[in-house]
Structure to design on (748 residues):
């Protein structure tokens, strides 16, 4: 079927806007006076309220639309009346104009005219109202009826449906951008600027963390204002975390397949507005109030000494593949924004979400970096975690650590100073890049996750990998000046089992997602402690709680940057669902009633106790890798490993199966100096990790390692609020309970 024949399959209606852009503008009066458009400026992109020539206030609109034939700015009155204004000024492929009298709160969008030729990647369709990629706020929700698709979604021959243009007007069905007044210079804000080595990250969902919190007023639950409430911040302070990592808060859309099943995208990894705080998390309305509310949340967290890191999704958008909706970038310049295959009808998909942004293109790179700088300079955030960062590091096809994206970040005076975390993989060939990102970056270390899970479930063939993971993963990061804090250590994340489910379920239980339990990973490295799911067996439940204590303590004592997931410290469960991306309900929300139960309060107390130890002792948050050698002539090695027999581990010990390891950390041999140039010294510690199902006798190393040891933590105990406190002489045998972690401090 030819292009012309397919376009004629759905006759275009008489819209009253035929002819040139000027003729179309003249036809949109509807009895209202037509606004005028002054030339304005091409910079900055987006809609910026300001004072124009002769002191006239209004809004400057600027849109990059590289291959477009013409662009109409569409302004919407409160009653929904649409006014179309031609942006006739063109500077370096940017259409721009200043509209006097347009003030904050005004809703707007664009219609972009050009060729419809999907075979060459051209998908312009002026019947579709498009969201400004630079919109600072968005009013309305994407519900995805057939009218918002650029092609005829229900065309009988689905194999060519994406080539048949749909000419129905989408304006009544899509959200609009909102003009926002940028009037905040952040002069009174005090950023915590926590050093990487001192950081403890707490991954949370704005809505899920606050939705069921009894101390937050009901009207604020699920919102930015709810997270800013003293009840929410108080919990973070009591735990001792230094940064919150927010699941995506960029404006996002729900996928069609979820809406058809009566579900919603809960996590938000489906961005469509890279400058707009997601309106669904606003208690202040959606006419721009969400911007100020987000800023107040950041200020409140900063006042509490807590940094704000955003989980950002620049690798793909909510427009999906060729059968997805036309919401923004596809209709502005499909070929300019997205990676296309040799068959330009199809999208290159390195993300598993249908499309991939073409970051090599200067205008796309500019969109991303402008967005990042905006969130730092105007919204106050302190860093970013980049979803599927390997997709951003691809040049033409392969992942390239000299790619334009990484190069631009490295030299940007704003972005190179904030926290940058890579999820160092994507779903394309060669996409797994753990340990490969340049020195400016830290990375989610999934090898840490896997090694720790395997050790505590008894599945490690030997302890070589565990040794690297507990001490900062020098095998991955000790190059190019990188430090141990390049490794963001985690046992759980939003994607996968919660910590409690990790010890309660052997298999995923995702039936509620409506995908036949096919979604979510089957590689969970979980152990259910002898029963699948919730159990009435006191022994099983006691063992599960002990395993939770073991996993949390191991994470928080390891060298690197620990990341906790909201609710893990209080035993949150998702009922075995390891992919709760569409569970915007009690499954996905934190259950604060767990803190009413002593057993879960004790787990929270343990988390806070170990974090307090970490904050007090620099040997537990080292800024340099261990050398295994003395740092001073009369010193001990900074790191030593021991077997239960009290002997230092040999090379053969590393290659043998083992359920017990002893890790000696010398506080007398910490490299580096403090801010005054003084040598950093600390207590020394011995950590014993025992994953065996029977107790084991451990011979405590005597002099010169220690004359005596004070027991600080024993995860076999349920009541961790009280320190064990007993003292054991060096050289004595200490019985280590089954499946437990002991932390002992050296007594001189």
């Amino acid at each position: 079927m030819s292009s012309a024949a397919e376009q004629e399959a759905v006759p275009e209606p008489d819209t009253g806007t035929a002819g040139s852009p000027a003729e179309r503008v003249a036809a949109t009066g509807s009895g209202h006076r037509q606004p005028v458009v002054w030339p304005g400026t091409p910079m900055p992109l987006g809609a910026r309220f300001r004072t124009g020539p002769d002191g006239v206030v209004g809004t400057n609109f600027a849109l990059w639309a590289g291959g477009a034939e013409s662009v109409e700015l569409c302004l919407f009155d409160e009653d929904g009346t649409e006014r179309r204004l031609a942006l006739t000024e063109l500077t370096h492929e940017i259409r721009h104009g200043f509209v006097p009298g347009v003030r904050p709160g005004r809703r707007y969008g664009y219609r972009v005219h050009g060729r419809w030729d999907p075979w060459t990647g051209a998908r312009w369709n002026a019947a579709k109202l498009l969201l400004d990629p630079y919109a600072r706020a968005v009013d309305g929700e994407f519900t995805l009826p057939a009218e918002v698709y650029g092609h005829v979604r229900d065309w009988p021959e689905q194999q060519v449906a994406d080539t048949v243009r749909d000419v129905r007007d989408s304006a009544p069905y899509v959200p609009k951008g909102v003009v926002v007044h940028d009037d905040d210079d952040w002069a009174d804000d005090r950023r915590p600027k926590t050093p990487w080595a001192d950081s403890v990250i707490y991954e949370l969902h704005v809505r899920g963390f606050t939705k069921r919190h009894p101390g937050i007023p009901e009207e604020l639950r699920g919102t930015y204002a709810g997270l800013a409430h003293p009840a929410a911040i108080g919990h973070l302070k009591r735990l001792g975390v230094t940064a919150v990592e927010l699941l995506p808060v960029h404006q996002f859309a729900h996928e069609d397949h979820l809406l058809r099943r009566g579900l919603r995208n809960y996590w938000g990894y489906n961005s469509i507005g890279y400058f707009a705080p997601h309106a669904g998390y606003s208690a202040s309305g959606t006419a721009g109030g969400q911007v100020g509310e987000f800023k107040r949340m950041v200020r409140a967290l900063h006042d509490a000494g807590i940094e704000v890191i955003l989980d950002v999704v620049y690798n793909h958008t909510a427009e999906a593949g060729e059968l997805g909706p036309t919401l923004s970038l596809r209709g502005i310049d499909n070929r300019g924004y997205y990676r296309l295959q040799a068959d330009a009808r199809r999208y290159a998909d390195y993300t598993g979400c249908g499309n991939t942004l073409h970051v090599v293109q200067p205008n796309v790179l500019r969109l991303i970096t402008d967005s990042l700088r905006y969130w730092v300079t105007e919204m106050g955030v302190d860093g970013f975690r980049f979803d599927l960062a390997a997709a951003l590091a691809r040049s033409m096809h392969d992942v390239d650590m000299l790619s334009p994206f990484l190069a631009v970040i490295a030299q940007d005076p704003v972005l190179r100073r904030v926290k940058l975390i890579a999820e160092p993989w994507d779903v394309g060939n060669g996409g797994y890049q753990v340990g490969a990102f340049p020195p400016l970056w830290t990375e989610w270390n999934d090898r840490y996750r896997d090694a720790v899970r395997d050790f505590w479930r008894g599945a490690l063939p030997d302890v070589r990998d565990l040794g690297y993971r507990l001490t900062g993963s020098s095998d991955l990061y000790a190059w190019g000046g990188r430090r141990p804090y390049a490794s963001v250590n985690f046992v759980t994340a939003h994607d996968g089992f919660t910590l409690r489910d990790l010890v309660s379920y052997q298999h995923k239980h995702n039936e509620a997602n409506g995908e036949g339990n096919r979604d979510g990973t089957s590689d969970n490295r979980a152990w259910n402690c002898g029963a699948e799911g919730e159990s009435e067996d006191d022994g099983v439940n006691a063992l599960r709680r002990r395993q939770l204590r073991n996993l949390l303590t191991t994470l928080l004592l390891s060298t690197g940057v620990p990341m906790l997931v909201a609710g893990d410290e209080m035993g949150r469960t998702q009922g075995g669902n390891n992919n709760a991306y569409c569970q915007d309900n009690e499954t996905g929300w934190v259950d604060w009633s767990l803190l009413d139960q002593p057993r879960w309060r004790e787990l929270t107390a343990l988390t806070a106790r170990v974090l307090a130890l970490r904050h007090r002792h620099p040997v537990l948050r080292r800024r340099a890798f261990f050398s295994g050698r003395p740092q001073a002539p009369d010193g001990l090695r900074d790191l030593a490993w021991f077997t239960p027999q009290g002997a230092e581990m040999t090379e053969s010990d590393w290659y043998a199966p083992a359920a017990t390891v002893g890790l000696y950390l010398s506080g007398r041999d910490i490299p580096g100096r403090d801010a005054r140039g003084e040598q950093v010294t600390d207590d020394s510690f011995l950590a014993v990790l025992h994953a065996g199902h029977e107790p084991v006798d451990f011979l405590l190393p005597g002099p010169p390692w220690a004359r005596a040891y004070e027991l600080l933590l024993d995860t076999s105990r349920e009541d961790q609020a009280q320190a064990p406190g007993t003292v054991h002489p060096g050289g004595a045998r200490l019985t280590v309970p089954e499946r437990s972690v002991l932390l002992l401090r050296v007594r001189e």
Observations:
- Residues 1-31 have pLDDT under 50 and may be disordered.
- The first strand starts at residue 46 and ends at 51.
- Residues 49 and 59 are 4 Å apart (CA to CA).
- The first helix runs from residue 3 to 7.
